[in-house]
Every structure is written in structure tokens, then in C-alpha cells.
Amino acid sequence: MTDIYGYCYSTLIVLGGFMGYMKAGSQMSLLAGIIFGAAAGVGAYKASQEPGSVIIGLGVSLVLLLVMGLRFSKSGKFMPAGLVTLLSVLMVIRYGSRLIK
């Protein structure tokens, strides 16, 4: 069973890093987007191969939830921190429920 949501999440993370680079010239956004997007992609691949293997995806989602959640609470801006926080919450719930099963 392919983890479509995990792959979409990883793609959005990479695209977000690219957009941060294009809009603000932030090389750090680009680098973080590539690293975290790739890690989320690996997590989606692992979850696709073995449905119970969600640790990588869960870990990436938790880290992004914490980092972007703090940014969102400080800035109050939905884009991009609020959106990534919301998506990360959904992925934590999804992977967490799969881990419990």
C-alpha cells in the first residue's frame, strides 16, 4: 500500500523550501526543505514497504511540528509556518495511529 499522503507531504516540504529560496533568497529554507522533504520521502517509502514502519515519518513530522509550531506561535503568520504546522499535526496523528495499531 503506497503512502500517498506521506509522499505528498514530502513534496510539499521540498516545494516550500524552494519557494522560501525564490521569495526571500533564503538558502537555509532551501537546504532545510530538501533535507526534511527527503527524510519525509524516505519515511513514506518505508511506510509503503511495511505499513508498521512509520518511525522515520513520525520523527520528521514531530520535528517539523515543533520547529514550525514555535515559528508560527512567534510570528502568527499562517504562511508558511502555520501551514507546515497544520500538515505536520495531521501526519503525526496519521503515523501515530498507524504505530499504535
TrEMBL record:
BP GO terms, sorted: regulation of heme biosynthetic process
Alphabetic keyword roster: Membrane, Transmembrane, Transmembrane helix
Classification via Pfam families: Tmemb_14
GO cellular component: mitochondrial membrane
Membrane-spanning parts: 7-24, 30-47, 54-72, 78-96
InterPro entries named among the record's database cross-references: TMEM14, TMEM14_sf
Name assigned to this protein: Transmembrane protein 14C
Main location: membrane
Organism phylogeny: Eukaryota, Fungi, Fungi incertae sedis, Mucoromycota, Mucoromycotina
Localization of this protein: Membrane
Entry's family note: Belongs to the TMEM14 family.
